[in-house]
Amino acid sequence: MKMMKAMNKSNEHVLAFGACFNEKADSHLVCVQNDDGNYQTQAISIHNQPRKVTGASFFVFSGALKSSSGYLAKSSIVEDGMMVQISAETMDSLRQALREMKDFTITCGKIDAEEPQEHVHIQWTEDDKNINKGVVSPIDGKSMDEIASVKIFHGSEFKTNGKVIRWTEVFFLQSEDQPSGLSDPADHSKLTENVAKAFCLALCPHLKLLKEDGKAKLGLRVTLDSDQVGYQAGSNGQPLPSLYMNDLDSALVPVIHGGACQLSEGSVVIELIFYILESFS
User: Fold this and answer.
1) Taking a C-beta distance cutoff of 8 angstroms, is the pair 199, 252 a contact?
2) Quick check: 168 pLDDT over 90?
3) What is the pLDDT of residue 180?
4) pTM
5) What is the DSSP letter of 45?
């Protein structure tokens, strides 16, 4: 489903995919800025061990390769990822294979070469549940093993009195009435953004006190379903003290109930993670 949404929203000539950490990789591509300000690609690896599997941060397929180039396809390293240039016809075939959830192979190299230089294999595998091992909720210590999450790089961030509160991650918890399904990040992005903003604004007057009290990592769990609409907020495995609840109620209740009204069916259980940091600007 996520693959279909990504393809439907993408440019017809380009497919770009972010990559997850590969535990089987013994090395990884990295992009390093040198003293001249330019960027160059390097591969970090285990000392004194030959590289067998190298991980990358992203993969891009570009369907702009002309037949006059003399190549079947071309692969190259770009910063800390890979780009594969293919013809428009191959791009159409690749998209069709992805829609049908079929494996696909791209042959790279010159058209008139006796042997191809390499192959790019796109393979469907079992869903990887080996994620967030050892991670626990700051609200109540709930294990986050096998729970999908998304890192937030440009999320809500508010500064006051030398402190900044930053939204860094959202977990999509499994709902009780839909045990086999996880909430889709794309479907609930606006809700999570609104909730994160409200949470940050509500706690802005209290950032200094929270930080001094050792509550630098905060969690906010929001539940929306037919039987329950509400939230839990905590830090260090404990609920936040009542001192903060009036401001949180005033900011969060309208946003959460508004989200519940827009929910067409099923339920949503999400947990947002925030950090209080020092602000030096």
Assistant:
1) yes
2) yes
3) 35
4) 0.64
5) E
Helices (H), the chain: 2-9, 88-99, 189-203, 207-212, 245-262
Average pLDDT, the chain: 85
Residues 104 and 62: their CA atoms lie apart, in Å, by 15
* Side-by-side strand order, sheet with 39-45: 39-45, 27-33, 54-55
DSSP class of residue 57 equals: S
pLDDT digits (tens, 9 = 90+) for 47-75: 888 888 888 989 999 999 998 998 999 99
Written as one letter, the residue type at 97 is: A
Structure tokens at 148: 């999908």
Pair 230, 223: CB distance under 8 Å: yes
Give the total residue count for the chain.
281
SS3 43: strand
Picking from 266, 264, 272, the residue whose alpha carbon sits closest to that of residue 233 is: 272
Question: What DSSP state is assigned to residue 35?
Answer: T
Rounded to a whole number of angstroms, the distance between the first and last alpha carbons of the chain is 42
**Residue 38, exposed/middle/buried by CB under 10 A (0-12, 13-18, 19+)?**
exposed
Question: What pLDDT is attached to residue 176?
Answer: 43
77 φ/ψ angles, rounded to the nearest 5 degrees: -85, 130
Give one DSSP letter per residue of 214-274, joined into a string: T--EEEEEEEESSS-EEEEEEETTEEPPGGGHHHHHHHHHHHHHHHHHH--SS-EEEEEEE
By CB atoms closer than 10 A (0-12, 13-18, 19+), residue 9 is exposed
Which residues lie below 8 Å from residue 276, measured CB to CB, with a gap of 6+? 163, 164, 165, 166, 207, 210, 211, 215, 216, 217, 218
